[in-house]
Amino acid sequence: GVAVDLRLERGRVRHTLLAATRGAQLVVAGARGHGGFAGMLLGSVSQALLHHADCPVTVVRGKD
After folding, report:
1. What is the per-residue pLDDT across 4-28, written as a single tens digit (0 to 9) for each?
2. pLDDT (tens digit, 9 = 90+) per residue, 35-57?
3. What is the pTM of this model?
4. Which of 8, 11, 18, 37 has the highest Cβ tally under 10 A?
5. 48 in a domain, yes or no?
6. Which residue range forms the structural domain that includes residue 41?
């Protein structure tokens, strides 16, 4: 099985999520749900996780 850690945190989203990557084995984040050209881009939080996280990051997109 896969162990999942669920937490409710307060603070700036980008900084809070980046802090949560310390000691994590993997972070799964959602992509912003925009259609068209904007839908191909990632939001700033996903970008920050991909570039600065202390663990591997998977960004998933929901069905359009």
Report:
1. 888 888 999 899 999 999 989 999 9
2. 555 555 678 888 899 999 999 99
3. 0.74
4. 18
5. yes
6. 13-60
Q: Let me know if residue 2 belongs to a domain.
A: no
Cα–Cα distance between 40 and 27 in angstroms, integer? Answer: 20
The number of residues making up the chain comes to 64
| pLDDT class of 1 with cuts at 50, 70, 90 | confident
- Establish if 19 belongs to a structural domain: yes
The residue whose two tokens read 């162990």 is 3
- Closest among 44, 42, 48 to 27, alpha carbons compared: 48
Are 14 and 46 in contact by the 8 Å Cβ rule? The answer is no
